[in-house]
Amino acid sequence: MTSGCIRIGKHPIHLRLQHIFEGLSKVILEHAPDAVAIEKIFVHKNVASALKLGQARGVAMVAAAMNGLSIAEYTARQIKKAVVGYGAAEKRQIQHMMQVLLKLNGIPQSDAADALAVAMCHGQSLRGMV
């Protein structure tokens, strides 16, 4: 198992989305996953952030689809419940559970912990546990 980050920098949105697409396509080719799991968008207060996230999600879904991968979507509540047992868990609880469940040497960065949690939720879903 591995995790990483695609850094996009301060560029026009179309170039940032292209960079995300190319980075995800490279990861898919390198690791050859069977499927892609992604978190559904939740809009609470910041609509602008949700729109940007939606664009990035769309690019991720296209990268997966173009590589013939199935795509599963989960709500934040489903993910938290799957890994912590409580749908309203806090970020630090997700990080702690990822460290414990995956026997990591240290606490993973927040975004990495979230991604790992989505993957674990999907694995549990495949086994009928979610």
List its traits.
two-stranded parallel ribbon; single chain; mainly alpha; globular; 130 residues; 8% strand; 2 strands; 5 helices
Structural commentary:
This protein is mainly alpha-helical and 130 residues long. The protein is built from five helices and two strands, in the order αβαβααα. It has a two-stranded parallel sheet. α2 (47-66) links the parallel β1 (35-39) and β2. The two termini are 22 Å apart.
Nutshell version of this structure?
By secondary structure, the chain is mainly α. The chain has helices at about 15-30, 45-65, 75-85, 90-100, 110-125, and strands at about 35-40, 70-75.
Please give the order of strands in the largest beta sheet.
1-2
Distance between the termini: 22 Å
**General shape:** globular
Helical content, roughly? 55-70%
Based on CA atoms alone, the radius of gyration comes out at 15 Å
Please render the helix and strand layout as text.
Elements: H1 13-31, E1 35-39, H2 47-66, E2 70-74, H3 76-84, H4 91-101, H5 110-126
Parallel strand pairs: 1-2
Helix pairs in contact: 1-2, 3-5, 4-5
